Amino acid sequence: MYKIVRKKFLTPAIALMDVDAPRMAKSAKPGQFLIVRVHEKGERIPLTICDYNSEKGTVTIVTQVVGASSRRICNMEEGDSFTDFAGPLGQPSEFIHMSREELGAKRFLFVAGGLGTAPVYPQVKYLHSMGAKIDVIIGAKTKDMVIFEEEMGAVCDNLYICTDDGSYGRKGLVTQMLKELLDKGEEYDQAVAIGPMIMMKFVTLSAKEYNLPLIVSLNTLMVDGTGMCGACRVSVGDQVKFACVDGPEFDAYKVDFDEAMRRQGMYKSIEAEADHKCKIGLGN
Amino acid sequence: MKNKIPRVPVREQDPVARIGNFQEVCYGYNEQEAMLEASRCLDCKNPKCIVNCPVNIQIPQFLHEVEKGNFEEAARIIAMDSSLPAVCGRVCPQESQCEGACILGVKNEPVAIGKLERFVADWSREHGVRFTSKEPSNGFKVAVIGSGPAGIACATDLAKMGYDVTIFEALHEPGGVLQYGIPEFRLPKESVVKTEIDNVKALGVKIETNVVVGRTVTIDSLMDDEGFAAVFVGSGAGLPKFMGIPGENLNGVVSANEFLTRSNLMRAYDPDYETPIYVGKRVAVVGGGNVAMDAARTAKRLGAEVTVVYRRTEKELPARVEEVHHAKEEGIVFRMLTNPVMVLGDDKGWVRGLTCIKMELGEPDDSGRRSPKPLKGSDFDIETDVVIMSLGTSPNPLIANTTPGLETNRWSCLVADDYGVTTREGVFAGGDVVTGAATVILAMGAGRKAASAIDSYIKNKKG
Ligand SMILES: Cc1cc2nc3c(=O)[nH]c(=O)nc-3n(C[C@H](O)[C@H](O)[C@H](O)COP(=O)(O)OP(=O)(O)OC[C@H]3O[C@@H](n4cnc5c(N)ncnc54)[C@H](O)[C@@H]3O)c2cc1C
Ligand SMILES: Cc1cc2nc3c(=O)[nH]c(=O)nc-3n(C[C@H](O)[C@H](O)[C@H](O)COP(=O)(O)OP(=O)(O)OC[C@H]3O[C@@H](n4cnc5c(N)ncnc54)[C@H](O)[C@@H]3O)c2cc1C
Ligand code: SF4
Ligand code: SF4
Ligand code: FES
Questions:
Q1: Mean of the pLDDT values across residues A34-42?
Q2: A168-180 pLDDT, tens digit each
Q3: To the nearest whole percent, how much of chain B has pLDDT over 70?
Q4: Interface check B56 vs A, CB under 8 A
Q5: pTM, full prediction
Q6: Percent of chain A scored above 90 by pLDDT?
Q7: Which among B131, B219, B200, B207 has a CA at the least distance from the CA of B159?
Q8: CA B431 and chain centroid, separation
């Protein structure tokens, strides 16, 4: 059993938790994810590793309510335990293979959509600790949905926030902010976009106009998360990849987003039955 | 004359009833039936059955005890060579192993060795018979990766020899394919699989689930930081193959592994569990092995009309004869000499059909199998909502990729000799990860051989 040692709501529908998982805390790296099961009859739910502390032996997850299982996770309290908590899974971000010297000479741009801010955070934090220069764009629907603002501000050089309704930061989409920065002549060696599939698709289209190298993190459907089932397969270039073992991060320009979005909806009607109550969507 | 007694038929669930539930198809023998069936054995001087059992169970000896009603003694004899009799009695391809060689089979029907082995194992479980005697602890730690038949067998033997054994399992439930692959109606999870796992635990073996070796820990960290003197890799062959045909990523195309994992490991067939499964009205299963039969029969039970598409003829079906027979009884349609060339989708990206081509068998190839060749212009469409790809599996490369010095062959199987010795000192391997997808009994046998090799290795090295 894996005990929740800290819980707080970041927004009414997004909860952050530190979970006791010493083995995972020791081996986790930026870009990886884990699989959690709330109880004996629960689904296996993939979540990004949003932080880890090998001394305390804890791993941080941030969950947004989109359906029955994510609601169950968010309803867990401090002191409760998850039945299963497996990981770290997937490939770490490519930059962890680079030296401090290499990274120190590089400038990164992160584009985070909604909940995607949570998985962006450990990457920015890591790069910051390695001396890289980093700008971050956070996009959210409204002011209440902006998360990790303070934490992110502490580890990046420039933080740009935009909201769909203009209730906070700049009004507009992340793609507009992205274009503005690039039009202004800002230069980046590498960009990373994490958020809802549809947002990553449009960031990819925008970045392409500027030939900005871009990586995305795909949140496909998953079952085992270890390469055993193929539920997570995505078309990348002319190859079929398993997001759970070959990814979750891929070269954005090679990803077939339309197929990926369609595949994400495979169990939609069945899941909707399991969860009649009102839903706060991931934005896709 | 003994051999004039006909083979005692085994009671089974009626096909019409059983396609509406997931309970075990075969009820097995009761005591009287078992004693009568066992009495058919001729007690051959040169028992061919033993030679053809991959772990050489002393078959006539245990049959003799069953005949006399000494079931506990029969169990003891089986336990000398097998650690999973309740499983193997149910799922071994007996027709090509022990029973295939039984002398009675020449003129009549062979002794029902598998069903009798199962009877003895079930009887032992129901009567609380366990063989848990073990040597005193010797203080050495051994890590076993994977809790399938290979890992269970290896851990069992090592624990009995006094080793301190920990099994590391990636999934949340131990058992390997016995848990996630083979369905409840062939291998009950609670009564059979869980009991086998409990038996290993009763020997003091620790099982850590949710540990993905290569990610959560590595073989190096287990040996260098956690003090394991040796490691056994029994991680199976879990990576599914796809055909690479157009339309394979449409919604509604799944691997048999995904379909079976949802149904077995995640119990999606039970409405109390949360994992969804999608079957539509019509399901086409591509392939002809045990895995294909399991997927087809699971889909049937979930309410679909099911067609199995296989590119050779019935004679070449790699599945166990009993499973094919059961599948037919359950109303599953077989399309032989048929191979898919494309999955057809509707305008929303969901499967609506499968374009297939007719095949004919050519000349036998090097392996002696006649390879199928497509008949030009014979394309036709099958209407279906779901396509389940059951084309075989290969070992997951994760462990090999994260363990320096551990070599693989071109099928990405770990290189190991008959005793499980790999190219890396202190690391042993066996089961599907070495042979590619094979059988429970072979995996179990490999696990046991590796256990004795590990014992010699540690004793030699640490004296
Ligand atoms: C590698 C990876 C990392 C992830 N990281 C996080 C994270 O850090 N925090 C977090 O809250 N969520 C994350 N997700 C998504 C999370 O797994 C899903 O939101 C969750 O499985 C939904 O389960 P549910 O039962 O609540 O919703 P369901 O009832 O299953 O689905 C509700 C709606 O969400 C959609 N949906 C289902 N699964 C996914 C999915 N995998 N991605 C996007 N939409 C989905 C469905 O199509 C449906 O419209 C991640 C997914 C992956 C694959
Ligand atoms: C659907 C199906 C039906 C079958 N039917 C039959 C049958 O009727 N008769 C028969 O004899 N055989 C049958 N087989 C084949 C048989 O089940 C296998 O040959 C046998 O289970 C192999 O045993 P194993 O111990 O080598 O591997 P597995 O049973 O595959 O177990 C391997 C275990 O290792 C775990 N693992 C993998 N990687 C890691 C890692 N990195 N870290 C930790 N753990 C890991 C896996 O999760 C798994 O639990 C069938 C197989 C399938 C899939
Ligand atoms: S283990 Fe398999 S092959 Fe051996 S006797 Fe039992 S059923 Fe036959
Ligand atoms: S071959 Fe058949 S008859 Fe002969 S000993 Fe074996 S089971 Fe008995
Ligand atoms: S989730 Fe099963 S293979 Fe990726």
A1: 94
A2: 888 889 998 899 8
A3: 99
A4: no
A5: 0.93
A6: 73
A7: B200
A8: 10
B134: tokens are 């073990």
Render pLDDT for A182-192 as a digit per residue (tens, 0 to 9).
Answer: 998 889 999 99
Say yes or no: CB of residue B291 within 6 Å of ligand 2: yes
CA of A222 to the centre of ligand 1 (A): 9
What is the CA(B321)–ligand 4 centre distance, in A? 20
Residue A282 has pLDDT above 50, yes or no: no
CB spacing of A223 vs B258 below 8 angstroms = yes
Tell me the average pLDDT across B319-345. 95
Element (H, E) at A177: helix A174-183
Q: Give the model confidence (pLDDT) of A49-89 as tens digits.
A: 999 999 999 999 999 998 889 999 999 999 999 999 999 99
Is the minimum distance from the CB of B111 to ligand 3 under 6 angstroms?
no
Question: Hey, which CATH number is domain A94-217, 2.60.40.1180, 3.40.50.80, 2.60.120.10, 1.20.1090.10?
Answer: 3.40.50.80
ipTM given for this complex:
0.92
Ligand 3 pocket residue status of B403, Cβ below 6 Å: no
Q: Is A169 in the pocket of ligand 1 (CB under 6 A)?
A: no
Q: Which residue has the higher pLDDT, A269 or B111?
A: B111
Task: Check if A277 contacts B (Cβ < 8 Å).
Answer: no
d(CA B357, CA B355): 7
Model pLDDT, residue A283: 37
Tell me whether B329 touches chain A (CB under 8 Å): no
Q: What distance in angstroms lies between residue B86's CA and the mean position of ligand 2's atoms?
A: 16
Those residues with Cβ within 8 angstroms of residue B347's Cβ, 6 or more apart along the chain or in another chain: none
Question: What long-range pairs does A144-149 form, CB within 8 A, spacing at least 24?
Answer: A144/A11, A144/A12, A145/A11, A145/A14, A145/A114, A146/A117, A147/A10, A147/A11, A147/A14, A147/A62, A147/A115, A147/A117, A147/A118, A148/A10, A148/A117, A148/A118, A148/A120, A148/A121
CB-defined site of ligand 5, < 6 Å: A 222-225, 227-232, 242, 244
Alpha-helical (H) ranges within B112-267 are 113-126, 149-160, 177-180, 194-202, 219-224, 256-263
CATH among 2.40.30.10, 3.40.50.2300, 2.30.290.10, 3.40.50.1820 for A2-89: 2.40.30.10
Say which DSSP state B442 is in. H
Domain ranges of chain A: 2-89, 94-217
Q: Is B264 on the interface with A (CB under 8 A)?
A: no
| Residues sharing a CB contact under 8 Å with residue B250, sequence separation 6 or more, in sequence order | B343, B345, B349, B350, B351
Which tokens hold the place of A26?
């020791």
